[in-house]
Structure formats: structure tokens, C-alpha cells
Write a structure and sequence with these properties.
The chain has ten helices and five strands. It has 324 residues and is an alpha+beta fold.
């Protein structure tokens, strides 16, 4: 009876969990942690857009430098040759007129290399090209004429080669090119890839499937491409389909397997959802396919969590945040 008050007094003096211990320090938010978190979030939001714009700009520059500019040079040379034949002298543009005084000035300053051995007519032609190029550059929209001409030529090429006679001529030309050493080793593979992507009947991933691969008990998500080879059907004696197994995080690479149709399970997800699943290594799971005890991935990032939080677990006690 004498010790009860002391025990009660000692209980009242029991120390509370410290809010300044190592655990509290690890939970305390600092400027560095906030900076890393928000910088990573901003990078994840802006980087896809920046990369997309960069790829489009590089593609445009490649087409302009390798397709548009050569065609532009050809168009300018054609205009220079055709203009004096269809336009009267009194209506010739200013860039076409090159006087003897301008030729003399060009020779004095040596505008072109090797001018001493050139005739006046040759110098006049070069000066017309240079003046026409300056007039061409003053109108920025003319730079796109090369791409427009390329699109028109490709259209007419497809129109001509799409007919019976055009296909026969192209097949003969293709047979001749396929005999050239070096060309025949590369061309068939490039043609097959191009036809797969842009042909009239492109290969499409229209089914997301589940197969036991690479051994029994391990399930792998794949994309069905088509039926397998006839030799495979004849050897197995049953329908076999071809499945592409993408790799992570680059789903455009992977390997191809042949699986009996009866051992393939269709998954109720789209190809786009499957691609996101492959790219993220399984982090992004379609919300319709989340197990009942798994929460959707929060918009702010971080992996999905299974079950209730630790603070709300049965039998546990929630710790107050630092400073509370």
C-alpha cells in the first residue's frame, strides 16, 4: 500500500517519445529533399514533351537538309534555265539581269574561285544563281517548296507503281538491284521492315496475351502478331500462334516465340496499356486490373501500396508527426 503512490508517480514521469530523436530527424522535411522531389516531378512532366519536340525538330531538319535543299537547288537551276525562254527581256526579274559592270566588279573582288579562267557568260550564270539565291532566301516560305515537290513526286510514284504495269516494271528493276553485291544483303530486310510499318497490310498487335514462358509456373505478358509458320503447324499438328515478348524498358526489342493456341490466355487490356506496363517494368498497372488490396498509383508518383497503411494497422499505434 505504501509503494502504490510511488509507482503511480513514476508512471506519470515516464518519458514521452522524443520528437527530436534520430527517427524524427529522418522524417523531417528539408529543402534538399523537397528540391529533389519537386525537381524529379517537374523533369518527369516536362521531359517527354521536350524529347518529343526535339525529335520532331531533328526529323524536320533532316528532311530539309537531305530532301528539301537538294530539290530546292534543282528548282532554282530549272527556273534560271527556263526563265529567259518564256519571259520577254523587258519583263525579266532584277535578279536575272547581270550587267558588264557587275561582272567587272566580281572579277576585281574575285567573287568566285577560278574566275580568271572563266568566260563572261559563265560568270554571269554564277552571279544569276547567287542573286536568285538571295532573292529566294528573302522569302522564307519558298524553303518549303522542296518538301512540297517531294510529297507530290512520292504521290505520283505511288500512283504509277500501284497499277499492274507499274508493279511489273518495279519488280524487274528490283530484281536487277537485288543482284548487286552488298545491296542484296541489306535491301530485303529494309523492305520487310518498311512494309511491316507502312504497307497495305501492316503487322498489328491486336491482342494482349498471357503465356507460360520461359518455363511452367512463370507467366509472361506478350503481344500476338499472327499465326505461326506452316512448317510449325505441320510439325505440332495443332494451331500455333506467334507471340512477341517485349523487353523492358525498350518494348520495340524482344524475342518471338511460337505457342499452341490452346495454351494462350487473352488479357482484357489494350495494347497501349500493355506497352506502358512493359516500359515501366510493371509499375503502371491499368486500374481495371489492380488486385482488390492494391491502391492505384498516386498522381504524384511512388509505387502502389498494398493493404492499409502501417499507422492504421490493427494493434499498432499511429505516431504523431514531428513537432506535434
Amino acid at each position: 500500500m505504501i509503494r502504490a503512490p510511488a509507482a503511480r508517480h513514476a508512471a506519470t514521469r515516464a518519458p514521452h517519445p522524443s520528437t527530436h530523436g534520430p527517427h524524427a530527424m529522418s522524417e523531417r522535411r528539408t529543402f534538399t529533399s523537397d528540391f529533389k522531389r519537386f525537381f524529379g516531378r517537374g523533369l518527369a512532366i516536362l521531359l517527354p514533351s521536350a524529347l518529343t519536340l526535339w525529335i520532331l525538330v531533328q526529323l524536320f531538319n533532316f528532311l530539309m537538309n537531305n530532301v528539301g535543299q537538294p530539290i530546292n537547288r534543282g528548282v532554282r537551276m530549272a527556273i534560271i534555265e527556263i526563265t529567259p525562254r518564256v519571259v520577254p527581256d523587258s519583263r525579266l526579274p532584277s535578279w536575272f539581269r547581270v550587267t558588264d559592270a557587275e561582272i567587272a566588279d566580281a572579277r576585281r573582288v574575285r567573287m568566285f574561285r577560278g574566275m580568271a579562267q572563266m568566260s563572261d557568260e559563265r560568270v554571269r550564270t554564277l552571279m544569276r544563281r547567287e542573286k536568285f539565291r538571295e532573292a529566294w532566301d528573302d522569302h522564307w516560305y519558298l524553303e518549303a517548296s522542296g518538301l512540297v515537290v517531294a510529297i507530290i513526286l512520292i504521290y505520283f510514284a505511288g500512283l504509277l507503281l500501284g497499277g499492274y504495269l507499274g508493279r511489273r516494271v518495279y519488280e524487274r528493276l528490283e530484281a536487277l538491284l537485288a543482284k548487286i553485291p552488298g545491296f542484296k544483303q541489306v535491301y530485303p530486310h529494309v523492305k520487310q521492315v518498311v512494309q511491316m510499318i507502312m504497307g497495305d497490310t501492316p503487322i498489328a498487335f491486336n491482342r494482349v496475351v498471357l503465356v507460360e514462358y520461359p518455363r511452367k509456373g512463370i507467366w509472361t505478358v506478350g503481344l500476338m502478331t499472327s499465326s505461326s509458320l506452316r512448317a510449325v503447324h505441320e510439325h505440332t499438328g495443332e494451331p500455333v500462334i506467334t507471340i512477341f515478348i517485349p523487353s523492358t524498358p525498350t518494348p520495340f526489342t524482344g524475342f518471338t516465340i511460337n505457342v499452341p493456341a490452346k495454351e494462350v490466355i487473352d488479357l482484357p487490356i489494350s495494347v497501349e496499356e500493355a506497352i506502358r506496363f512493359f516500359v515501366t517494368g510493371g509499375v503502371l498497372i491499368p486500374e481495371s486490373q489492380l488486385p482488390p488490396d492494391v491502391k492505384p498509383l498516386p498522381k504524384g508518383g511512388g509505387p502502389a501500396s498494398a493493404g492499409p497503411p502501417a499507422d492504421d494497422a490493427p494493434g499498432g499505434s499511429a505516431k504523431p508527426p514531428p513537432g506535434v
